[in-house]
Amino acid sequence: MTETHASPRAESASPGSADTAAGRPLEGRALRLVMALLAFAAGASVANLYYAQPLLTLIRHEFAISSGTAALVVTLTQVGYALGLALLLPLGDLIENRKLAYRTLLVTAVALAVTAASPGFGVFLVATALVGVTSVVAQVLIPFAAHLAPAESRGKYVGQVSGGLVLGIMLARSVSSIVAAAWGWRTIYAISAVVMIATAILLARLLPRRTPAHAASYPRLVASTIAIARAEPILVRRAAGQTLMFAAFTAYWTAITFELVGQHHLSQAQIALFALVGAAGAAASPVAGRFGDRGFGVRGRALAVVLGVTAAILAGLGSSSVILLALAAVLLDFAVQSNQVLSVRDVYGLRPEARARMNSVYMTSVFAGGAVSSALTGAVYQHWGWPGACWLALVMEVGVGLVFLWDRLASRVPAPAAAA
Q1: Number of helices (H), then strands (E), in the chain
Q2: Most confident option among 96-110, 188-202, 402-416
Q3: Is 186 helix (H, G, I), strand (E, B) or coil?
Q4: Where would I find the H helices in 279-354?
Q5: Which backbone phi and psi does 168 adopt, to 5 degrees?
Q6: CB environment 389-416: b (16+ within 10 A), e (fewer)
Q7: Chain mean pLDDT for the chain
Q8: Entry pTM
Q9: Intra-chain end-to-end CA distance of the chain, in Å
């Protein structure tokens, strides 16, 4: 299979409209309303993974632990998310999607409440890991958006929902910093628990039903997920590239809080403003989606590689300037989100009937890479400081470039059927 075969399959599988359970596609205002809800729900749920990043110094002081140990909060949350992606996400091809989404969010609310009330660091770690597992609902909603969207504008709507997701990621840091400065770092988890309950109610009431056609057992479903990964080289290459891109992103945002507090003496409110600057990267999602719809996916991914490498270099050179560090954050966020939207668009075009399982393979790889990166970054920063973290991010961004070259070479090799 070559890259050029991906789009035709997607178009033939969804001729011009969404494949809803009722057979009646959403249109106009109803479609826009549902997409806005999906974008909000994706952003609100994935934000739970990132609330802790700007709070690591406060968490370290509260529980009397080292910076490396505090970084485990990020690591275990992402490990939990990766487990959820591997074990829960395939259910999107088996269980009615609306029910799966809102019920999972209710479990997330319970885990967040436990996190807010944790008496010790051990309980806190377990609770945040469970938050990570259940926040996977964000990745249930993006394939849902692809199913609902008309084929000719799938990139646009997937980009919008992905934009909501990345906006949640970026605003999470600012919101958690502001809330921590006003009412203490635990409060953000209590607030988020309430938001998850409200979001679950909205999803239950407003989303259309979508029951997948897949009727196999759960073990067979997971086994088929592995088989899909083996059979789709494009999926493997897109996952590899985004895994390294997200690992560089995680390295930056795991280490930057320690750097801003320790070297630049920023307050929690100032850290909130810094994180808010990075939220500009959310603008890349709809732009990248339209780029992909117009057939410029390869150029967009090449640009993402250049932006990522530039961001890592700029972060290392600009350690003495908060402004340069913020510019590096914006470039890195543009890179990671553009590459994400364009890669996911290609992946969703491969097998429309198996989008949840393909998303499981793709996103499990991405967040497993993020978990490894956060663990490495904690150790690297403890020994080599900010320069070490920047070098780590740069090596990963160079790896993204190598995967891109691998993909371009592989896409020029004829598929076996075409050769025959």
Answers
A1: 18, 0
A2: 188-202
A3: coil
A4: 284-293, 297-317, 322-348
A5: -60, -40
A6: bbebbbebbebbbebbeebeeebeeeee
A7: 83
A8: 0.71
A9: 13
